């Protein structure tokens, strides 16, 4: 156990400036490409995100937005100083969107000092907690996800009955002011045994809080004069609930059991809420009701085995059954923030179990943007939208494919992360006692030399 702990701490510790007196220090990141007002991506098969496919497409990016989408003629009309990316023989998609995660809020799961994902205390209502104010743009996890094709994240707080407000961020590593696209795009919460030891108690508390928030909206002056009865939550939390009650932002509610999902639908109908179900292991059982209410469901297809009595009905074809019933399906990685890039694998699992390929791609691009009310700016390749784009070596839902170029807000990011730097540092070490090189066989260029190995390796997991 001590050996395992030592290795883990070694990998997580900050890199020393130099390994020896003669070894030069590696840069923290690879040199970025020179900034260009115009970027042209041409020659690939463009999957717009809404099901449309453009063969031999050209995408023009100007000032961080998509300025043109069409055929080869667009490339010819671009200015001479444009940054040109050759996507011939490759697949081009919108940047992927990762939902309901703590990216930038939690760095190391087992180290409490790196956690900023929840408000302290036992009170179950934390609606005023704003994840955008705790988001750390220098998290080493951001670049890990970005070079895997994830360009946007819906960052949600954790804990409690109502956890707080969701932040919509573009993965611009190190840009503390610029990474946030929009704060408060949703209110996150939990059903099940999230309060009072019983789902009945949790539902009763939700009803009480929402009712009090309605009263608070019309009697703020009386509240400030202490002329109202005690409310179920602090004034800041009641105020933070107002956009949700007004239908301006959705309530993203984690629920797996079919009965909990039905209870959430009843709650949304009573208070006229925009609802999004997160988890939804048994959502397929109530697919007609979800479709009738036009409620999106965020699922993780690989969660096909029961992890609790709430998920006894989990199955691999959940996403396919929901989509067939007309339910908007979003695919996410809900386990941790270190592997959000695995949403392509999750989408591939859904395709293998009956979900149409185009629907699966939409479930990790446009559909999440629509669910969080950000479809006007994110999720597909269209003129005027934020230029988040990924060029893939092949089918993005295949494990053998990887991103070759990623644009975040119109800028080509360096395809380097802490993980690739660690790989490159130790790629030339000899095996213990064997004297043979363990040089990596990854075909991607090294950030310091541009040299590539001769044999391609499977992509990182």
TrEMBL record:
Residues 1-20 form the signal peptide. It comes from Nannocystis pusilla. Residues 448-461 have a biased composition (Low complexity). One of its GO terms (molecular function) is hydrolase activity, acting on carbon-nitrogen (but not peptide) bonds. Residues 429-461 are annotated as: Disordered. This is Amidohydrolase family protein. Transmembrane segments: none annotated. Residues 294-396 form the Amidohydrolase-related domain. It holds the Pfam family Amidohydro_1. The keyword Signal applies. Keywords: Signal.
């Amino acid at each position: 156990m001590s050996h395992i702990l030592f290795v883990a701490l070694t990998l997580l510790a900050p890199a020393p400036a130099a390994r020896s007196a003669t070894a030069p220090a590696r840069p923290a990141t690879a040199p970025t490409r020179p900034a260009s007002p115009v970027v042209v991506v041409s020659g690939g098969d463009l999957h717009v995100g809404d099901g449309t496919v453009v063969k031999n497409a050209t995408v023009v990016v100007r000032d961080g937005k998509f300025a043109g989408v069409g055929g080869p003629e667009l490339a010819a009309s671009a200015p001479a100083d444009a940054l040109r990316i050759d996507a011939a023989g490759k697949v081009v998609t919108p940047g992927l969107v990762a939902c309901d995660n703590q990216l930038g809020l939690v760095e190391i799961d087992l180290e409490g000092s790196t956690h900023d994902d929840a408000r302290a205390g036992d009170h179950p209502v934390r609606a005023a907690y704003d994840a955008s104010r705790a988001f750390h743009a220098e998290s080493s996890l951001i670049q890990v996800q970005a070079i895997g094709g994830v360009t946007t994240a819906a960052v949600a707080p954790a804990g409690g009955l109502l956890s707080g407000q969701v932040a919509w961020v573009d993965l611009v590593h190190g840009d503390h002011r610029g990474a946030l696209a929009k704060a408060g795009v949703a209110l996150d919460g939990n059903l099940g045994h999230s309060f009072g030891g019983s789902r009945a108690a949790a539902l009763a508390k939700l009803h009480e809080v929402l009712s009090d928030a309605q009263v608070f909206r019309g009697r703020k002056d009386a509240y400030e004069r202490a002329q109202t009865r005690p409310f179920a939550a602090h004034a800041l939390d009641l105020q933070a609930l107002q956009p949700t009650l007004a239908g301006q932002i959705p309530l993203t509610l984690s629920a797996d059991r079919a009965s909990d999902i039905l209870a959430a639908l009843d709650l949304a109908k009573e208070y006229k809420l925009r609802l999004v179900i997160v988890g939804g292991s048994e959502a397929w059982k109530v697919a007609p009701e979800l479709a009738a209410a036009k409620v999106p469901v965020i699922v993780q297809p690989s969660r096909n085995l029961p992890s609790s009595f709430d998920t006894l009905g989990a199955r691999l074809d959940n996403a396919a059954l929901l989509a067939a019933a007309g339910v908007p399906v979003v695919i996410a990685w809900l386990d941790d923030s270190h592997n959000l890039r695995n949403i392509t694998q999750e989408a591939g699992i859904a395709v293998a179990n009956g979900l149409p390929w185009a629907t699966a791609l939409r479930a990790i691009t446009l559909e999440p943007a629509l669910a969080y009310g950000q479809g006007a700016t994110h999720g597909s390749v269209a003129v005027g939208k934020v230029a988040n784009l990924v060029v893939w070596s092949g089918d993005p839902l295949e494990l053998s494919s990887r991103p070759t170029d990623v644009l975040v807000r119109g800028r080509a990011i360096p395809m380097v992360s802490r993980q690739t730097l660690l790989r490159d540092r130790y790629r030339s070490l000899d095996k213990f006692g064997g004297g043979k090189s363990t040089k990596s066989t990854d075909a991607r260029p090294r950030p310091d030399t541009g040299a590539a190995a001769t044999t391609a390796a499977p992509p990182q997991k």
